[in-house]
Amino acid sequence: MSTEHTVAPYPPTDGTQPCAAEDPELFFVSSSSMGNYFQLPRALDVCKPCPFRRACLAYALTHDVSGVWGGTTENERARIRRQHGIAAEPVHTTDAAAREEEIAQLLRRGETPADVARAVGVSNQTVNNYIRRSAAS
Predict the structure, then answer these.
(1) Which of 45, 55, 69, 126 could serve as 11's disulfide partner, Cβ 3.0–4.6 Å?
(2) Residue 136 CB: number of other CB atoms within 10 A?
(3) What is the distance between the terminal CA atoms of the chain, rounded to a whole angstrom?
(4) What CATH class does 93-137 carry?
């Protein structure tokens, strides 16, 4: 049972959303790392008052993104998708070269590393690693 859904656009990033004042790593919580796991309540609390929460959740439901989006975890979004027959569009490729090219294009456009990380669906550390490698070559 699959119904057709509109793919939501990337949520607004005008700097006024509560997550803009946080380290993007806060929203990439991994249950395999207990240190990161304890960040989850904080990440979810940041989302609660956000006026862009619905747009962020809509984007996350229609795209295959990692981390906390719209006040939900990856597991919660998977459950919602199953319940409503929503198929998530891939945000980025698993091909490292293609992903790095996508990061490079967004950085050339003047996007901040935090915005690039969110758009590509990777951690802020991944973008910073790319920037360091690029500067060294």
Answers:
(1) 55
(2) 6
(3) 50
(4) mainly alpha
pLDDT at 17: 84
HEC assignment per residue over the chain? CCCCCCCCCCCCCCCCCHHHHCCHHHHCCCCCCHHHHCCHHHHHHHHCCCCCHHHHHHHHHHEECCCCECCECHHHHHHHHHHHCCCCEECCCCCHHHHHHHHHHHHHCCCCHHHHHHHHCCCHHHHHHHHHHHHHC
> What is the pTM for the complete model shown?
0.62
In this predicted structure, the answer to whether residue 23 has a pLDDT above a threshold of 90 is no
Closest CA to 27 of 85, 67, 71: 67
Residue ranges of the chain that CATH labels 1.10.10: 93-137
> Could you identify the residue written with the tokens 């027959």?
85
* CB-neighbour burial class of residue 24 (10 A; exposed 0-12, middle 13-18, buried 19+): buried
Q: Could you tell me which residues come within 8 angstroms of residue 68 by beta carbon, excluding any fewer than 6 positions away?
A: 26, 27, 28, 29, 40, 43, 44, 47
**Which residue type, as a one-letter code, is found at position 15?**
G
- The residue whose two tokens read 């700097």 is 15
pLDDT at residue number 44 = 93
